[in-house]
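Supplementary Methods, section 5.1.

A reviewer requested that the exact input to the structure prediction be made available. We therefore reproduce it here, unchanged from the version used in the analyses.
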Amino acid sequence: MSREDTQRTIRCMVAKVGLDGHDRGAHVIARAFRDAGFEVIYSGLHKAPDEIVQASVQEDVDVLGISILSGAHDTLVPKIMDGLEEYDAKDDTLVLVGGVIPEEDRPGLEEQGVAEIFGPGTSIEDIVEFVRENAPER
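The structure derived from this sequence is encoded token-by-token as follows.
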């Protein structure tokens, strides 16, 4: 059995939360994750935090990437983190946030359990490598 046969596929959900309709970056990340060999689920636009939590739990994802450009990250991301906690999935899910997140808002999101925040200009290779190195073992 080769090493590739024994490696499991990382399951990722790329999610758009709230009324933010900018999804180009989410599509780019979803395609990059697919090309990296990850199994990718895209939530589509305008999802409520509870819808994202439900889908993440039902799909048993390893990684939840939240793309948000609306400026509502301090409101919507904590609701997702609380939902994951409620379903006892927070510790088993690597949560990433992508978008324009002001420096002063980052510590609060990290305290909520967000593993990393990727802003504009972050290389795709860096994001994929971060996921490979930090996706939870199951």
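The two ends are 20 Å apart (CA to CA). These observations are discussed further in the main text.
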